[in-house]
Design brief:
The chain is of the alpha/beta class. The chain has helices spanning about 10-15, 30-40, 55-65, 80-85, 110-115, 120-130, 135-150, 155-165, 175-190, 195-205, 220-230, 265-270; strands at about 1-5, 25-30, 45-50, 70-75, 205-215, 250-255, 275-284. Helix 1 links the parallel strand 1 and strand 2.
Length: about 280
């Protein structure tokens, strides 16, 4: 079993594995999350911890001399641990350094995105990854502010965003939520490789093995849905072509016709689960 991200859930997974034969491979970009998982799972010996990226799952399994696995769980996006650690810069609450790196060893930070990206590029990122309708105004005001002084903290960025969105449009959640999501996605390259990662994960499954993917926003879910549909052999050719030229290959079946969403009880226990969607694919 391979578990990528969300180290806090690993204990529930490893409990279900046979202590003699079952093996959990925990992969996370965040070394602090790995350290937390090691503490939580200290009583278990059937766990391997990998500091890495799920985008490289084939390479990781190859280094472990593992050809196929029975199950993979991808827990995408930022974790509650990272949000709660305010000094990581993921949260728009408080005043902290603009960082947002899941992997602290990488070079690109939120501070560099905010202070160095050209206005048009910044606006496109905020619109595409944050689905923020006021992206152009936010990008313009960021560039005006940084020309006077480098933007250093989350608080400074939040004030710029609040100034960029009309008051009447700030009623639906925190005004900085979408922009912070967009910058975080850019810093950690969360969307671009996702469809390929889903396909790579499916390639790594044994027959009847399952890939389970938890997403937390529409961009992730859309990419996962598209990749799974392609893997189940749906032809993507234009309808006017007389025959298939896309070489659609059936690799398995999608178990979830619609994504599984948290129950009301689960949402009450964990308010951050409200946007979660689970999709499952089974290898043939």
């Amino acid at each position: 079993m391979v578990h990528c991200g969300g180290a806090g859930h690993s204990k529930e997974i490893v409990k279900k594995l046979d202590k003699e034969s079952g093996l959990l491979i925990g992969i996370d970009r965040d070394e602090e999350a790995i350290d937390a998982a090691k503490q939580n799972l200290s009583e278990y010996k059937n766990v391997k911890y990998i500091h890495g990226n799920h985008d490289n799952i084939k390479e990781i399994l190859n280094k472990l001399n593992i050809k196929k696995v029975d199950g993979i769980l991808l827990d995408l996006g930022v974790s509650s641990y990272q949000l709660d650690e305010k000094n990581r810069g993921f949260s728009y609450i408080g005043s902290n350094e603009l960082d947002m790196r899941m992997d602290k060893t990488q070079r690109l930070t939120a501070k560099e995105v905010v202070n160095c990206y050209k206005e048009e590029h910044l606006a496109n990122i905020i619109y595409e990854y944050g689905e923020e309708r006021f992206s152009r105004n936010i990008a313009k005001n960021i560039c005006i502010a940084r020309a006077k002084k480098k933007i250093e903290t989350t608080e400074e960025l939040v004030k710029i965003i609040e100034k960029s969105i009309p008051k009447q449009n700030q009623k639906d959640g925190h005004p900085a939520k979408r922009t912070f999501q967009a910058i975080r996605i850019e810093v950690n390259n969360e969307i671009k490789p996702l469809e390929k990662t889903i396909r790579d994960c499916i390639d790594c499954l044994n027959s009847k093995g399952r890939l389970c993917v938890i997403t937390f926003h529409s961009l992730e879910d859309r990419a996962v849905k598209t990749a799974m549909n392609r893997a189940k052999g749906i032809c993507t050719c234009p309808k006017d072509l007389p025959y298939c030229v896309c070489n659609a290959e059936k690799l398995g079946i999608v178990i979830t016709k619609k994504p599984i969403i948290p129950t009301e009880e689960e949402q009450k226990e964990n308010s951050r689960s409200k946007s979660a969607k689970l999709r499952i694919f089974e290898r043939i």
